[in-house]
Design a protein that fits this description.
Distance between the termini: 30 Å
Number of helices: 21
Radius of gyration: 28 Å
Number of strands: 24
Structural class: alpha+beta
Largest sheet: 7 strands, antiparallel
Length: 726
């Protein structure tokens, strides 16, 4: 694949789709990884063509009727109806592909405000919130609003014990960090405060920090109390799903200048007897935040700019430094190569291709050829006590299909399996994809079932690991054939000894069992993984109807420890598929490679390789990078696009479909285009984080994504479906 590096198109709340390939599909069957060496993580921005779309303030006659003391009497505010209009500057970047006439380029949008007059102070203006100019060069503003909140259950005694401060007291407040393109007008601020205030406790929302005032008061008092403030919140380099949805609500309510909003948690620690040391603060930070999705804010936020810049693609110098250099890269970058892999790839590049590989190529092969993706163990020769078995493990599994294939439609060949169903009456839109009446249509529907495990991520970070396990299984169901429909799900968990306080079990005592530092405890996995899977299903709209949980850990009579140290997180689901959609089409020259779903973030890096390693063999920080973050609302939007295509029946525009899983584009794009090839425009992928390097855009799993093949004649149709679902 030849990668063309162009300016990114992403925003966390963008349209959610991108065309990343031209119609000039290559006919060579050579390795799709070898030509990506031309990629450099640099940005080249062309001169955009501008289309002005005028947008006017909401007038009293068509505004939302929001009756709240926080809003005041907006009908008295005559001046604000005459504020200057704003505009959206839609800049369509020119193609960088040689065959630009055959490439569909999605529009890039950026928000500008034109000719804005100073806002006149409104009647009933709320207390002013603190607003500061961003410290970066993005010309944005950060506004802070604060809301008092309660402590999580059990946090205080746990902190008193862990910090060894018996008289420790803790107070908490939440801080809403709001990024805008210009400062709020009084009217906008009233709407923002009304939206963020709790329904029955709106007085808890304040424009100034309460615990900061208390901290200053304690420092000036004569009680000699020691205090400090700790703040944690989402990582700056990616926008949370909560932020994406909140921004959409603000825009719908007429506050269009909000770019991003994130909620951080602020804690006031104070003690009359002990000093709050830096070590105590560090211990407390580790207790209250998820290091995978959150970070410690040493100072109040003045910008969401993480300061990260895209790393350049680099070569691994095997030609002069030899095989030891490949071994070093294997460890440093968590590639998961065994001795056989290292020798094979060293011989491939040094002796056959006779050049150095890039980090993108090595990362690509590590994901695509991992046990997680290729099932080498299940398909490999089995030699037991020196004797080769007649069947590999995968053949044993498939024996049931060979014994009774009569009712199987899809088996061992797609993302899920289906069996023959029935002709049933279905309730469908008369004209799918547009507003229309519903009607009953008889259709041949097959029964779908799928199941998988998400063990490694659920062990490292139970809640996000399990929620993305459930989300990945849902995408597997939806990506069967040329599109399928979801019905219900089930889940199961197998963990080690729970070691519950006050409920010690005989086999748990005096075992001397130790657990890896990079894995959560079995008790935490059982609670948080269950919460994560249920949370994702609830937000997506798929009911979880059954499941199981098992705790097991013993030392047997021979002294061998047998325990679910690495947990099992099992996710399954049932669904249905139109029988006419059972088979994917083969790639042909002229088809478009399309990605649909959420924007790209630096998440799920190296999941295929990490999941294939012996537990503990990888670096802890690389294990953490390999876990994904879920966005069920985005998956629901994407699923509605696919469902609209399915409801079109024989007019379904999808020719082939795969969900994006471990390895990201390393796997999903190759699944679509094999055995041909494609010219991929890497920077056409929607970015939620503009600091992503080429290897991260290509290899990160960033969830809620599908890859599709679509004919040129249906591109406009598919674009309209995506725009409808935002």
């Amino acid at each position: 694949m030849e990668s063309s590096m162009r300016s990114g198109s992403g925003s966390g709340s963008g349209s959610g789709w991108a065309f990343i390939a031209s119609s000039s599909i290559l006919t060579t069957s050579t390795s799709t990884t070898s030509s990506i060496t031309k990629s450099k993580a640099s940005f080249v921005t062309g001169t955009p063509s501008k289309v002005q779309v005028r947008s006017y303030p909401i007038k009293r006659s068509d505004s939302l009727r929001m009756h709240s003391p926080m809003l005041g009497n907006t009908s008295n505010n005559k001046q604000e109806d005459n504020e200057s209009p704003t505009s959206l500057n839609m800049a369509a970047s020119p193609s960088s592909s040689p065959s630009s006439s055959s490439v569909v380029q999605p529009s890039k949008l950026r928000l500008e405000q034109l000719d804005t007059k100073p806002a006149t102070k409104a009647h009933n203006a709320p207390r002013s919130a603190s607003t500061s100019t961003s410290s970066s060069d993005t010309n944005t503003y950060i506004t802070h609003l604060f809301r008092a909140n309660r402590l999580d259950f059990g946090l205080l005694p746990k902190a008193q014990h862990s910090l060894s401060i018996p008289d420790l007291s803790i107070e908490r407040e939440d801080c809403f960090n709001i990024e805008t393109s210009h400062p709020f007008t009084d009217k906008e601020l009233r709407i923002v405060q009304w939206l963020l205030a709790e329904t029955y406790e709106e007085e808890k929302l304040c424009p100034a920090s309460i615990i900061s005032e208390e901290h200053r008061a304690l420092g000036q008092s004569s009680s000699h109390a020691h205090s400090d403030i700790v703040e944690v919140g989402p990582r700056l380099n990616f926008q949370t799903a909560w932020s994406t949805n909140a921004v959409s609500i603000f825009h719908s309510c007429g506050v269009a200048n909000v770019i991003r909003i994130e909620k951080s948690r602020r804690y006031l620690l104070y003690s009359k007897k002990a000093t709050i040391s830096e070590q105590a603060k560090h211990t407390f930070v580790n207790m209250i935040h998820d290091r995978m999705t959150e970070q410690h804010y040493e100072h109040p936020l003045t910008t969401f700019d993480s300061g990260l810049v895209p790393a350049e693609t680099h070569s691994i110098d095997l030609m002069s430094k030899g095989i030891e250099e490949l071994k070093r890269a294997n460890v440093d970058e968590g590639l998961g190569f065994d001795d056989w892999d290292i020798q094979y790839y060293y011989d491939l590049f040094v002796n056959k291709i006779q050049r150095n590989p890039t980090n993108v190529e090595l990362f690509d092969m590590a994901q695509s050829n991992s046990e997680h993706s290729r099932h080498w163990f299940f398909k490999g020769k089995m030699i037991i006590d020196g004797q080769e078995m007649k069947q590999d493990l995968f053949s044993v599994v498939r024996d049931t299909l060979r014994a009774n294939p009569s009712n199987s439609v899809v088996a061992f060949s797609d993302n899920s399996s289906t069996i023959k169903g029935f002709t049933i009456d279905t309730l469908n839109p008369k004209n799918p994809g547009v507003p229309s009446e519903m009607k009953i249509i008889p259709r041949d529907m097959d029964i779908l079932c799928t199941a998988e495990t998400h063990n490694f991520p659920s062990g490292v970070a139970p809640f996000p690991g399990a929620e993305t396990g459930a989300g990945g299984r849902m995408r597997d169901s939806a990506a069967t054939g040329t599109g399928s429909l979801l019905v219900a799900g089930f889940a199961g968990y197998s963990v080690g000894n729970l070691n519950l306080e006050g409920h010690e079990l005989p086999w748990e005592q005096n075992t001397g069992f130790m657990y890896p530092d990079n894995l959560a405890t079995p008790r935490r996995i059982a609670i948080e993984a269950s919460n994560g899977a249920s949370d994702y299903g609830n937000k997506f709209g798929e009911p979880l109807i059954s499941g199981f949980c098992r705790s097991y850990g013993v030392r047997d009579a021979s002294g061998v420890r047998r325990e679910y140290v690495k947990p099992i997180m099992f996710s399954g689901g049932v669904g249905q598929m139109l029988s006419m959609h059972a088979r994917k089409q083969k790639p042909q020259i002229g088809m478009y490679v399309v990605k649909v779903g959420g924007p790209a973030y630096r998440i799920g890096m190296g999941g295929g390789a990490a999941s294939s390693m012996v537990q503990g063999a990888n670096k802890a920080e690389l294990d953490l990078n390999a876990v994904q973050r879920g966005d069920a609302e985005m998956e629901q939007k994407t699923y509605r696009v696919l469902r609209a295509c399915v409801e079109m029946g024989e007019k379904n525009p999808i020719l082939s479909l795969h969900d994006q899983g471990a390895g990201g584009n390393c796997n999903v794009v190759k699944e679509l285009i094999d055995p041909l090839g494609a010219r991929i425009d890497l920077r056409e992928i929607n970015l939620g984080d503009t600091s992503l390097s080429a290897v991260e855009i290509w290899g990160a799993e960033y969830q809620e994504n599908f890859g599709l093949l679509i004919g040129k004649e249906n591109i406009d149709l598919f674009r309209k479906l995506c725009e409808r679902e935002k």
